[in-house]
Input
Amino acid sequence: MNLATEFGSERVFNTPLSEQGIVGFAIGCAAQNMRPVAEIQFADYVYPAFDQLVNEAAKWRYREGDTGGNVGGLVSPESLFTHIPGLKVVIPRSPAQAKGLLLAAIACNDPVIFMEPKILYRAAVEHVPTEAYELPLSKAEIVKQGKDVTIISYGHPLYTCSAAIAAAEKDFGVKIELIDLRTIYPWDRKTVLDSVRKTGRAIVVHESMANAGVGAEVVATIQEGAFLKLEAPIQRVAGWATHMGLVFEKFNIPDVARVYDAIKRTIEF
Output
């Protein structure tokens, strides 16, 4: 098409073969009120540009006005990794769980993405045995038995769920089962389906955004494998589809009130 001749070499030119550089250059042009068109010729090659796409382009409109202050890295990216066959993705809820799952991950011959909730670094206090032990990967744990509602979660929100369960059981006279997935890919479908077939009601809770998240996969699996046993629509309690600074984090991630309301809606349906 001879675009370089028509529009000039300052507007149409080849770049070094660096996907991160191509996208980063385009972001810089856009920041200067230009309309760049960056081409990554093959989708397979886009991964090196993820840093620029996720941490720069996607967050540009969420910066602090004219200050240019970044919204930070407060994200839950686990669902990105669950879309890649060949990886295992593990998220522990506590120090004792972290040790057993980490040792199992090290012993595993497959690559394991081990994601530690940052808040647990300072918030979790628990006795951890000194001897070596492993907890099975891709095996969920029933943290609390119940018969009326199943709540499925992983990582730090399990503590939020426990507080909401205590309040709901007191107010509504129900018994709620709580499941920790521990490994979110490949995850333990059998434990979840067996529980939902027993209780007839399901709620999925996680910090990452609802769209295309881990909860969506869990909900779809329950719909396929336990639909005729359901007594109410499956509920999802998740983060909102937005970036936020640290000061706004408490408004984004699920809290006790949101989980409690989901329980109330489910049992009153």
Q: What stands out?
A: The first strand starts at residue 88 and ends at 90. The chain is about 40% helix and 15% strand.
